[in-house]
UniProtKB/TrEMBL annotation:
<dbReference type="Pfam" id="PF07980">
    <property type="entry name" value="SusD_RagB"/>
</dbReference>
<feature type="domain" description="RagB/SusD">
    <location>
        <begin position="358"/>
        <end position="484"/>
    </location>
</feature>
<dbReference type="InterPro" id="IPR012944">
    <property type="entry name" value="SusD_RagB_dom"/>
</dbReference>
<keyword id="KW-0732">Signal</keyword>
<comment type="similarity">
    <text>Belongs to the SusD family.</text>
</comment>
<dbReference type="InterPro" id="IPR033985">
    <property type="entry name" value="SusD-like_N"/>
</dbReference>
<dbReference type="InterPro" id="IPR011990">
    <property type="entry name" value="TPR-like_helical_dom_sf"/>
</dbReference>
<dbReference type="Pfam" id="PF14322">
    <property type="entry name" value="SusD-like_3"/>
</dbReference>
<feature type="domain" description="SusD-like N-terminal">
    <location>
        <begin position="27"/>
        <end position="225"/>
    </location>
</feature>
<protein>
    <submittedName>
        <fullName>RagB/SusD family nutrient uptake outer membrane protein</fullName>
    </submittedName>
</protein>
<keyword id="KW-0472">Membrane</keyword>
<keyword id="KW-0998">Cell outer membrane</keyword>
Length: 484
């Protein structure tokens, strides 16, 4: 398929995405007019927690593992993705809504409704009500954890009480018109309080990936502590999450990639056009809590790829290489320069909720940082045996014996595991305030043509580790200070 035909496809996709953005209301709390969304019974509140909203996240191509490729970068990549790749100040136009802000805050509105009202529902047992309120609080914690990592500075104990984050909205009232930004500390405190309070009432058995379970909340709480640099507090929560996984009533755990890429495996059939078949997150056993984002770079878009350095992190036998291709979409006669590879095989979505691989890798990182090198190595080698031949899974002795080197190895494993999925951007943020590992954060994005000639270079400024408040929010709410 030629560039012209692909442009038609991408133009249609872009039009659909823009239409969705423009359909969102300017007030980020406007889900329905006040008084229309009526819930009275426990079943009504239960239904409010069943929805799956698909948000467009701005950080997918912001990580330092990415490179741009012309002519696809400017010819096919959506403008907001180009701007986030270039680390520009404002990603969206002044009259365009921001999906991540709007969608997450609208989800928080629904969670608040359950939290505020379910205990007064007309029917149902006290146990049912407590469980639903706990689930809503844990879901709200996920929403605010995402928001604080988009719009607040990376957590720094010395400055978190003064650094501004996002408005802390705790009631489901769309008539609110005045908002102020809570601090990073206040939002993290809310997230921890919500998760801690919810844990005793959440179901231990995972029965539905759309719903919050105890192991998902434990994993999320562990991640929150890790992002705060409190690895000693993170480790028990991550351990608890992993220990609770066997109680699930649906398949949950790590995939053995060798098995699943073989004939009859979960990732087959392997299409010569779109790669392995891993696009249905509802049945993906590595999804513990499903909140998905549109990601066309795993599917159709050809303009942002893994750069040469990131590709070099994979060993030759790594089965995850099956999810990487040297060719632009449907231009199989062309090969990316300098060994760069495009991600494919995961459909047009990826999970930004809670994932099993994330929990395992965070646990290994916490063990390494806590000087349990043997424990970290054991975790990593067990994980890697699910991703590559046993011989390649072994961590070299020189790496295994050194805390800093081993931790960097684990951080690089996260790049190998989550390429062009936005995970690296969040890791870059937390590492940027880490005195030992901040040097591992890349600060350059490069755009090449198909011959490998550099067409543009962009430098990450420290202030752009935080996204600016979307202009339509800032313009409509003058009491919300803008980020630099």
């Amino acid at each position: 398929m030629g560039l012209l035909n692909r442009k038609i496809i991408y133009s249609f996709i872009a039009l659909m995405a823009i239409s969705t953005l423009e359909a969102c209301k300017k007030d980020f709390l406007e889900v329905t007019p006040k008084g229309v969304l009526v819930a009275e019974k426990v079943s009504d509140y239960n239904q409010l927690l069943n929805s799956l909203s698909t948000a467009v996240m701005p950080n997918l191509v912001s990580g330092d593992e990415a490179a741009g490729i012309e002519p696809y970068f400017t010819g096919e990549t959506l403008p907001e993705n180009q701007k986030s790749f270039r680390w520009e100040n404002d990603i969206y136009l002044p009259d365009a809504t921001s999906m991540e802000w709007t969608m997450i805050m609208q989800m928080i509105y629904q969670y608040n409704k359950v939290i505020n009202e379910v205990m007064d529902a007309k029917d149902g047992s006290e146990e049912q009500k407590q469980s639903l309120m706990a689930e809503a609080r844990a879901c709200r914690a996920w929403g605010y954890f995402m928001m604080v990592n988009f719009y607040g500075k990376p957590y720094n104990e010395a400055t978190a009480a003064a650094d501004l984050a996002v408005p802390k909205v705790l009631i489901s009232d769309v008539s609110q018109t005045k908002f102020t930004r809570a601090t990073v500390k206040e939002i993290y405190d809310l997230v921890i309080d919500d998760l801690t309070a919810s844990l005793p009432y959440l179901p231990t058995a995972l029965t539905n990936r759309l719903r919050m379970s105890k192991p998902a909340a434990e994993g999320l709480l562990g991640k929150v502590y890790a992002f705060m640099g409190q690895y000693d507090k993170a480790l028990p929560q991550l351990n608890a999450a992993i220990n609770d996984l066997p109680g699930a009533s649906i398949p949950v755990g790590l995939y053995d990639f060798q098995k699943e890429l073989a004939p009859g495996g979960a990732f087959t059939p392997i299409s010569p056009i779109t790669g392995p078949s891993r696009g249905n997150l509802n049945i993906d056993q590595e999804v513990l809590f499903l909140r998905q984002t549109v990601n066309y770079f795993n599917f159709l878009f050809s303009g942002v790829v893994l750069n040469t350095k990131a590709v070099g992190l994979y060993l030759p036998g790594d089965y995850r290489r099956a999810f990487l291709t040297p060719n632009p979409f449907a231009d199989f006669a062309n090969v990316y320069p300098n060994g760069m590879l495009r991600t494919w095989g995961s459909g047009a979505v990826n999970n930004v909720g809670v994932s099993v691989p994330d929990i395992y890798l965070l646990r290994a990182e916490c063990k390494s940082r806590g000087n349990d090198l043997a424990g970290a190595v054991a975790d990593m080698e067990a994980f890697r045996k699910m991703r590559m031949p046993a011989g390649e899974a072994v961590i070299p002795a020189a790496i295994a014996a050194d805390k800093v080197t081993l931790t960097i190895f684990i951080l690089n494993e996260r790049i190998r595991e989550f390429p062009i999925q936005g995970y690296r951007w969040f890791d870059m943020r937390r590492l940027s305030v880490d005195p030992v590992y901040k040097s591992t954060v890349g600060t350059t994005h490069t755009v090449y043509d198909m011959n490998g000639t550099v067409k543009g270079t962009y430098t990450l400024r420290p202030e752009r580790l935080v996204f600016r408040i979307p202009l339509y929010i800032a313009n409509a709410n003058p009491d919300i200070p803008q980020n630099p």
